[in-house]
């Protein structure tokens, strides 16, 4: 059972009423930003034939994972914090972990957040592979990267990611889920045992190990692709490209897309790194209460960044999104 009155649980975000109101306001705004941005992404991908490609499928998968965070994960935190402010006491289920009650909301929300985070990482990795083939082997792109293969990889990434998300509870009876008073989210925690056994320690470390392995591979592949793009740009400055040369080189759209995926990778790596540091520190026995709040919510905020990156880096996406939103703008202008 968690002691909600411990001073350590009075985080920098929630020690005063003003801070609590600002925190809830931030969460509510984050929900709207995630829903709006990712619904626009899905609408653009589904309604525009130009995006009915393997890359478009992967971006749609990434948007669905981010949507799940805005639909399930953040609203539960809003409910718990608003309940705490209104009733002056936290919901009863926040005082227990999932092993001590018959049904705990975190049994659902915790794996959803972990699974969607893993889906995002694997999807960005697949996007990087797809763009690297387009840049490094442009003549083989259409034969290697097909819609059917991409769809199968997307399904595999979702199944594998959610299996990893529930694996701590499957393979260890010592790990439970709880609403953490520091992070204000559903997190993995020890069950009824007070110290970390070696098995639970190893299982919890699987998450940062898996994530950083994929992210490390993604960064390396992006560096190789961007280096190839730089070499190609230098050659274009010194040589007049013949028709034969241009057919074996990546197109301008492939180059732009590769740079966009590189930006996505950089943004996700920056948002995930604090979580990995926190998990390792937590396993070693550090509480880091204030740090955990910022780490988890920085990661949650990443769910609304993708549409901003697409809009800035991808002109075609920006134009399609603008056309999609034009009817709403016209309705507002006619009302005025």
TrEMBL record:
- What's a Gene Ontology MF term here? trace-amine receptor activity
Report the transmembrane regions from the record: 21-45, 57-80, 108-129, 150-171, 203-229, 264-285, 291-312
Q: List localization entries.
A: Cell membrane
Q: Where is the signal peptide?
A: none
User: This protein's superkingdom?
Assistant: Eukaryota
Domain G-protein coupled receptors family 1 profile, by residue range, is 37-310
Query: According to its UniProt record, what is one Pfam family this protein matches?
Result: 7tm_1
Its placement in the membrane is given as: Multi-pass membrane protein
Q: Which UniProt keywords apply?
A: Cell membrane, G-protein coupled receptor, Membrane, Receptor, Transducer, Transmembrane, Transmembrane helix
Cellular component annotations (GO), alphabetically ordered? plasma membrane
Q: Quick one: where is this thing mainly located?
A: membrane
Record's CDD domains? 7tm_classA_rhodopsin-like (cd00637)
- State the family named in the UniProt similarity comment for this chain: Belongs to the G-protein coupled receptor 1 family.
The name this protein goes by in its record: G-protein coupled receptors family 1 profile domain-containing protein
Q: Which organism is it from?
A: Perca fluviatilis
